[in-house]
Amino acid sequence: MAIRKIRVMGDEVLRKTSKEVKEMTPRLKTLVEDMFDTMYEAMGVGLAAPQVGILKRIVVIDTYEENEKFALVNPVITHVDGEQIGEEGCLSLPGKTAVVKRPDHVICQAYNIDMEPITVEGHGLLARAICHELDHLDGVLYPDVAEEPVRDVTYEDEIEEGE
Ligand code: NI
């Protein structure tokens, strides 16, 4: 188990396009484990490999709901519908938030860490997390797609989150 350093906005690695994983290696499996550890330590619901400086098409997501924990390798969104408007944050923009419009329902094809094909279907927060994390693989950060300028998370926001 290892916690990796999370890159913050301004680091150019976050703006690059990540490369497809051709084969799973012990090194990449360790990366996935470290990404989960790093995400949990930072109390996030998702983390993409470029956020720890690795330009590979790998994301981890855990919404903390049942059956909503995934490592996705080479993920592709194959279906979207509906719409949700809500506040979004990112571990690469600590203390910041903005309202982002996302589809409310997403179907995603990917591979698991054994390179077996999987299909993940998400509504609500999971759909949002999939869209957000996949954007990272193409160098897109949520301020690029937000409905409003990014702002600081206020004390009131934090109280609300705690409820
Ligand atoms: Ni993010």
Describe the structure.
Belongs to the polypeptide deformylase family. Pfam families: Pep_deformylase. One of its GO terms (molecular function) is metal ion binding. It is an enzyme of class 3 (hydrolase). This protein has 163 residues and is of the alpha+beta class. The protein has four helices and eight strands; from the N terminus they run H-E-E-E-E-E-E-E-H-H-E-H. Strand 4 and strand 5 (96-102) form a beta hairpin. The mean pLDDT is 95. The protein binds nickel (II) ion. The site of nickel (II) ion (NI) has 5 residues, from helix 2.
Write a brief structural summary.
By secondary structure, the protein is α+β, with helices and mostly antiparallel strands. The chain is 26% helix and 30% strand.
Layout of strands and helices, then pairs:
Layout: H1 26-41, E1 46-48, E2 58-62, E3 69-81, E4 84-88, E5 96-102, E6 105-111, E7 117-123, H2 124-137, H3 142-145, E8 151-152, H4 155-162
Antiparallel strand pairs: 1-2, 2-3, 3-6, 4-5, 5-8, 6-7
Nickel (II) ion binds at residues 90-92, 132, 136.
